[in-house]
């Protein structure tokens, strides 16, 4: 297996699943509601929603860097504002994360392996470090999301016996 295929495999394991450490980004976000995502159970910590936007921002930045663009994120780009906090907005956030990840995965899969030791475009870090960095970044934040999920109450589900007016 080529080095770029091994790296692409690690990127997919970190995002999709099958990483030996535990849940991937997608797995840890599975079933999270907008209410849970916007919740701030730990003082001075980011919410799941903010972290999700942050992951997407850096996956996009690395994709653009690998394509030769010089990218330095501003504070507002690094931690994008949430905006609306509806279920539809959360679904759109997750869909955007998925689209961005697919674009990054395709860029990595097509990346010229002979260029891994060079900085892409005018960027400072070599491509190898950029790609492994985004993988590590995904996993770091997946761990944060896992902790936040434990601190956020699960959405209340009403059964027929606990629904108002039943009984």
The SSE string, one letter per element, is HHHHHHH
The residue ranges in which pLDDT falls below 50 over 5 or more consecutive positions are 159-167
Largest sheet: none
Radius of gyration: 18 Å
CATH superfamily: dinb family like domain
CATH class: Mainly Alpha
For the terminal residues, how far apart are their CA atoms?
62 Å
Q: Give the overall shape, derived from the CA principal axes.
A: globular
Percent of residues in helical segments?
55-70%
CATH architecture: Up-down Bundle
**Helix/strand/pairing category:** mainly alpha
Mean pLDDT: 92
How many domains in all? 1
InterPro entries: DinB-like (IPR024775), DinB/YfiT-like (IPR034660)
Pfam families: DinB_2
Protein name: DinB family protein
Write the layout of secondary structure elements.
Layout: H1 3-15, H2 25-29, H3 34-38, H4 48-66, H5 75-78, H6 87-110, H7 127-151
Helix pairs in contact: 1-6, 1-7, 4-6, 4-7
Protein name: DinB family protein
Pfam families: DinB_2
Domain DinB-like: 25-145
Question: Please, could you describe this protein's structure?
Answer:
The C terminus is likely disordered. It is globular, with a radius of gyration of 18 Å. The chain is built from 7 helices and no strands. The longest helix has 25 residues. The chain has 167 residues and is mostly helical. Helix 1 runs antiparallel to helix 6. The chain has one domain: dinb family like domain (Four Helix Bundle (Hemerythrin (Met), subunit A)), CATH 1.20.120. The chain is 57% helix and 0% strand. It comes from Eiseniibacteriota bacterium. This is DinB family protein. InterPro entries: DinB-like, DinB/YfiT-like.
